[in-house]
Amino acid sequence: MTAGPTSATRPHNRKQLIVEAAGQVFSERGYHAASMEEIAAGVGISAAALYRHFPNKYALFAECANVMVDRLVAVLDQWPPESPLKDVLAALTRVTVAHRASGGLYRWEARYLDRDDRRQLRAKFGQVVGRVTELVAREFPMPEEGLRAVAALGAIGSVTMHHTSIAQRRVEEMLVASALRVAATDPAAAAGSAGLVELPAQPVPRTRRAEILAAAIPLFARDGFANVTNGQIAQAVGLAPSAIYRHYPGKVDILVAACLQAAGLLAQAVDRSLHQATDPDQAVVALTAAYVAYSFEHNALTSVAEAEIVGLPPDLQRPLILAQREHIAVWEQQLRLSRPDLDRRQARLLAHAGLGVVVEAGRALRWRDTPENRDAVTALVIGSLTG
Known about the structure:
Layout: H1 14-29, H2 36-43, H3 47-53, H4 57-77, H5 85-98, H6 100-103, H7 105-108, H8 115-139, H9 145-157, H10 168-183, H11 208-223, H12 230-237, H13 251-275, H14 280-297, H15 299-308, H16 314-338, H17 344-364, H18 371-385
Helix pairs in contact: 1-2, 1-4, 4-5, 4-8, 5-10, 8-9, 9-10, 9-17, 9-18, 10-17, 10-18, 11-12, 11-13, 11-15, 13-14, 13-15, 13-16, 14-16, 14-17, 14-18, 16-17, 17-18
């Protein structure tokens, strides 16, 4: 019988290595699709060894969800209250970029935390937002300092949601500059932009299949795809659970249909907005206003598409990822026409920063769909993009 590994051969930071590997797996595959065996393999240990550190997948997930915000809080504790906003944002950006593979876990997957754990996570992020808000208010005294702070953090956090490859130092410089521009943007700068957008109407459900889809989207958005049953969807439509299968082979097919509907509506909105633009700068404004309007009007549909795609099987993911890439390519093209100083990867990085602003600013506004809120978020996104 061979002896087990000794303390001399076991890494002293094994728990940290597990959390790093798990955060990446959870971010890439989603909470429910990730397995403890896959995480253990990523660290080079057995599943049994993994369970010696964490009793179950939820405990490991909760640790991963907190690790990034704990790092951000620790960074802020190192800077005195009188520190320049730029220096503090740079420090937050360095941490975020260094852990981009796992740092975006909180954005979508945190909805699977228990209520108490979710409340604690929000309280920690509240500390980060509160500190940045104080600095924003001091250096750029104008209305909506809290919204500008959240939006600036959204620009920085966007790097965790994509894989665009640029030298780390350049990424940090661009994200800090984008976040500073957001913090310095007057939310009233794009007043009236909401009135310029005409969105395609969401299809009216005229068939039983369409009714099922319309009923499932808000359930997926509220509770998460994995937590919604066919019985709940059927009840919302007034059907027996078995009747769902006459229209969709499985629940995952409803999710795919929702994601494809989101991609189609967004593509229509973008085409309409760009058709009316007469120059590159105006095209960027039109594209931004259309995306913001779409995000507010179809928030449940958008959140489902963004949050759940990682958990789909690869063959079902493929057309949805292609649609996402095509959308980002539109942003990339318009930004490079407006800003010839950007190369393709830089434009892509900034495009994602703008989308990050929409997500975090929209959440801060609780997605209350008013012309004023659309205008404010549009202004902040444009601020994140301009040089």
